[in-house]
Amino acid sequence: METQETTMREQFGATVTELLDQDPRTALVLADIGVAQFPEAARAHPDRVVNVGIREQLLIGAAGGLALTGMRPIAHTFASFLIERPFEQVKLDLVHQGVGAVLVSAAGSYDWPAGGRTHMSPGDVALLDTLPDWHVHVPGHPAEADLLLRHAVAAGDTLQYVRLSAHQNRHARPVAPDRFLTVRQGRRGVVLAVGPMLDAVLEATETLDVTVLYAATVRPFDAAGLRAALGDRADVVLVEPYLAGTSEREAHRALADLPHRVLGLGVPVAEHRHYGSIPEHLAAYGLNAAGLHARIAEFLW
Questions:
Q1: How far apart are CA 235 and CA 232, in angstroms?
Q2: Are strands 26-30 and 49-51 parallel, antiparallel or unpaired?
Q3: What is the pLDDT of residues 148-177, one digit of tens each?
Q4: Contact partners, residue 260, CB within 8 Å, separation at least 6
Q5: Which of 24, 166, 184, 209 could form a disulfide with 111 if both were Cys (CB 3.0 to 4.6 A apart)?
Q6: CA–CA separation, 268 vs 164, rounded Å?
Q7: Can you spell out the DSSP letters for 80-137?
Q8: Helix, strand, coil % (nearest 5) of the chain?
Q9: Residue 153 phi, psi dihedral angles, 5° rounding
Q10: Is residue 2 predicted with pLDDT exceeding 50?
Q11: pLDDT at residue 246 is higher than 70
């Protein structure tokens, strides 16, 4: 992973500041985290940039209330505090009320290991899968984050989740919301790389005869795109930067009428007690290029 001038969170600050200036329906709700990114926006729009303090349940409740008045709320904090901690409010104050919002997380599964287990949320997408109608975006580059944030905010009153990460790819891809992108074509199976996993997947499969698909949006799952990518065999490997197997059910549904096999790779279901760095966590989970090559080759050959 190369150092880049702009991170996804920095891009989030620039994009949302611009959207607040352009659209009077937009409102930003924070819970202390991220406040330092929006001093000018808070001065320019004091009634639409709200910091509720370290009260994550209120963060979601306030977003739901703003949506009930016709606003388009954007709520932001770390994934563990945005999805896991206030999950009941996500279920009741947004979904059950029938209102939309844009939830934007940071830190994801392993971005800040020094923060400890409280700041690790590999189960966020799996949790949202228990609720209906969520659109889930997992950009792999700041430019993709910009595109998907604008798409999410403009998408009427729908429920949108944008999962930002410090783990990112070297180059942006020409992604389109809700569709997988073919990056490489082969015959002996399909490897679907989600968001920041693409660079490692491309390196891992460089010598393998497989199709590599790229997903920056995973819900809705592009079943037609997956089926169109199948070669001689309906064997599929999913590589996701969160809980392993999160999208296995979606892949099985897409291939239900075909003989097929699916392998889900990602962060394992285990108790995570180690600090370390992002590369060390990826290596420990078998999600670096060497680990992925071994597991993909064993499954497909």
A1: 9
A2: parallel
A3: 999 999 999 999 999 999 999 999 999 999
A4: 234, 235, 236, 252
A5: 166
A6: 20
A7: IIIIITTHHHIIIIIIITT--EEEEEESTTTS-GGG-GGG--TTHHHHHTTSSSEEEE
A8: 40, 20, 40
A9: -70, -35
A10: no
A11: yes
